[in-house]
């Protein structure tokens, strides 16, 4: 029997969840059909489709009343002039939050990683109220742990939120949150959590994001397909409830969830609502 405290933690996290989508042709319809205006939707940056797809979808969803967070992948932006143009464009659409990953593409300009872009964003008078950066509970396949730790420390002066990358182990997640706080980083955290995903749709989505990107995705997230898609291999609620002790500790400053939908918006929102109803009993 779970304690009331754990129940409160789970409900709070589910209430404060945002939805990550990829800018494909049909995802706008899925968002409008299944998510109420006012919900937060983050739009990834796809090298195969270009940053314009991210910005255009962001503008359309913002016009429909969603709180939209575009991913400004540093390596996809040519330099300070383009960054300023993008910032002005997003401000004109009412966007107040951006998420800045390094990105998987080869750099098209001077930004080798997120910190380079964040420095330039600050130099042009960062107009965004919230700026998110990536955190890595699991080891990155191509970047040493010491480097990911140092870069997060370096980026903390620019960031107002940290979004954790995929992990399927509640112990790893809890340990990472504690380590971040032990290093003196107080930036609020959004826990990255894959929702329930249908295997066939997941494989379809992998092909849609491009062969090269799919390979990089799989390299970065070893075991993703096995852990998410195999029956019984992954349960989002099992991860949440087992990590609730750490996630519910006010000293850890865990603000909410970042739900990786893999564009299965309907299924992810139905699951979120079902779990909220369950935990409100």
UniProtKB/TrEMBL annotation:
Pathway: One-carbon metabolism; tetrahydrofolate interconversion. InterPro entries: FAD-linked_oxidoreductase-like (IPR029041), Mehydrof_redctse-like (IPR003171). Keywords: FAD, Flavoprotein, Oxidoreductase. It comes from the Bacteria. Its cofactor is FAD. One of its GO terms (molecular function) is methylenetetrahydrofolate reductase [NAD(P)H] activity. Belongs to the methylenetetrahydrofolate reductase family. This is Methylenetetrahydrofolate reductase. It comes from Nocardioides bizhenqiangii.
């Amino acid at each position: 029997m779970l304690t009331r405290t754990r129940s409160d933690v789970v409900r709070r996290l589910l209430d404060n969840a945002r939805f990550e989508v990829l800018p494909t042709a049909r995802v706008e319809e899925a968002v409008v059909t299944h998510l109420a205006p006012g919900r937060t939707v983050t739009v990834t940056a796809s090298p195969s489709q270009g940053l314009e797809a991210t910005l255009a979808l962001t503008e359309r969803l913002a016009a429909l009343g969603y709180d939209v967070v575009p991913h400004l992948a540093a390596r996809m932006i040519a330099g300070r002039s383009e960054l300023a143009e993008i910032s002005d464009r997003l401000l004109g659409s009412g966007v107040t939050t951006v998420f800045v990953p390094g990105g998987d593409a080869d750099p098209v300009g001077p930004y080798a990683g997120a910190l380079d872009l964040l420095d330039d964003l600050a130099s042009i008078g960062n107009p965004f109220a919230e700026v998110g950066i990536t955190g890595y509970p699991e080891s990155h396949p191509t970047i040493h742990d010491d480097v990911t730790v140092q870069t997060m420390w370096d980026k903390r002066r620019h960031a107002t939120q940290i979004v954790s990358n995929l992990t399927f182990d509640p112990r790893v997640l809890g340990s990472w949150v504690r380590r971040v706080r032990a290093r003196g980083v107080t930036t609020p955290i959004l826990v990255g959590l894959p929702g329930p995903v249908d295997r066939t749709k997941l494989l379809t989505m992998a092909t849609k994001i491009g062969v090269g990107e799919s390979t990089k995705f799989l390299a970065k997230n070893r075991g993703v397909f096995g852990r998410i898609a195999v029956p019984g291999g992954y349960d989002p609620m099992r991860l949440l409830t087992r990590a609730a002790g750490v996630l519910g500790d006010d000293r850890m400053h865990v603000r909410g969830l970042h739900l990786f939908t893999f564009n299965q918006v309907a299924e992810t929102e139905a699951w979120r609502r079902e779990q909220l109803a369950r935990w409100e009993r």
